[in-house]
Amino acid sequence: MTTTISNIHLSEQDFEAWEQGRLSDAQMEAFLTHTANCPHCGDAWFAYMSRHAEALPEPPAYLAQEITERVHQPDVVIAQKARTTSKKVQLLLYSLKVGVALAASIYMLFAMDPQMFELMANFTILK
To answer: Residue 43 belongs to what domain range?
Structure first.
């Protein structure tokens, strides 16, 4: 590769080397890791691929149907329902925490000694 991946962003030559398959396995791993972790290089790679769209292979015609079938299989549906249920449970627990905190603060307000309440009401920071 023409650049040091740890310090510098990838160059146009690096993208061309990737596209032409001139990268070794170690360079390919470094290239992919860097583009995944560096927003600048990830965007630059996307822009490069947008300009060279003809280099991208066409997806197989059966891929959409396979994805649709897989999404409707029971294990995927169950996993999605569990994730949705989990979010609902998290919302319920958060709501309960907020409710308990509100109830405790209201209780503390009414359980306060009347003399302390008067002191707090008359207290001013600047006199």
So the answer is: 12-55
